[in-house]
Amino acid sequence: MIHQIVEEIKEKIIRGELREGDKLPSQDQFAQSLGVSRGTLREGLNQLLLMGIIEMRQGSGTYVRSVTPSSFMESLSPALMMNKSSAIELLDARLYIEGAVASLAARKATKEDIQGLRSLLEDMRKNLKEGNIKGFISHDLQFHLMIAESSKNRVLMKVVETIRDVLYEFIAEFFSIKPETVKNALEFHARIFTAIESRNHQEAKKQMESHIRSLIRMIHKSGLTMQLESRGEV
User: Fold this and answer.
1) CATH number at residue 188
2) What is the model's pTM?
3) Which of 10, 102, 124, 209 could form a disulfide with 204 if both were Cys (CB 3.0 to 4.6 A apart)?
4) Is 208 exposed, middle or buried (CB count within 10 Å of its CB: 0-12, 13-18, 19+)?
């Protein structure tokens, strides 16, 4: 019931029935209009408050905040974090989402975006040469987020950011356990960068999908998911 209230209020905002700066009715009135108890409504409002969709002003009431695509994505991360067995499912999602993002980046990346990606690629090469796995993982994350930023689509940027945040420790552990796979990842990153730089959107999509498929295969082969499960982490 609480989830339904949250979704109903979000729908009212999306439809424009509630706009930025609008004051919500009193909890008694609002609960009655939604056909729920005051306590249930309060729980729903607390969730919306945590998402950053509404704000409570002391002595004034509850108001709709400035709503951006990221506001509606904030609720995704906690749901995914509650079930770490979703790691492989999230990698599957990356396959389709980041393939499309790379394609958009090849079309829309600015010269500054290209330079940023080139710099990150060089950092990863340096990390590999020095055996700095931790540094490589950090620059790997930045590289993918930069591609998402280059797509110029705020919703996709937030989706990629959220999924990568959830997967960060999982992927970091994989690279730590299997450091020999870092070279393979770097080679894919170089091919993805070349495709984006040359504005070849089809090749960018193909190389990103190949990269993620390769990662999924190696994770399955390594048995990492089984190791995590045996330790109660999945």
Assistant:
1) 1.20.120.530
2) 0.65
3) 102
4) buried
What gap in Å lies between CA 99 and CA 108, rounded to an integer?
A: 14
Instruction: For residues 63 and 77, state if they share a domain.
Output: no
Is the domain of 59 the same as that of 106? no
- Please tell me whether residues 37 and 115 are part of one structural domain: no
User: What is the domain range of residue 195?
Assistant: 73-230
Q: Are residues 150 and 208 in the same domain?
A: yes
Count other C-beta atoms under 10 Å from residue 109's C-beta: 24
Distance CA 156, CA 185 (A): 22
Please list the pLDDT of the chain residue by residue as tens digits (234 residues).
Answer: 677 788 788 778 767 788 888 999 998 998 898 888 988 888 888 878 877 788 888 888 999 886 555 555 555 555 554 444 556 778 888 888 999 999 999 999 999 999 999 999 999 999 999 999 989 999 999 999 999 999 998 888 888 888 887 787 778 888 888 888 899 999 999 999 999 999 999 999 999 999 999 988 888 777 655 444 444 444
Q: At what angle do helices 181-197 and 133-150 cross, to 10 degrees?
A: 30
Same domain, 138 and 33: no
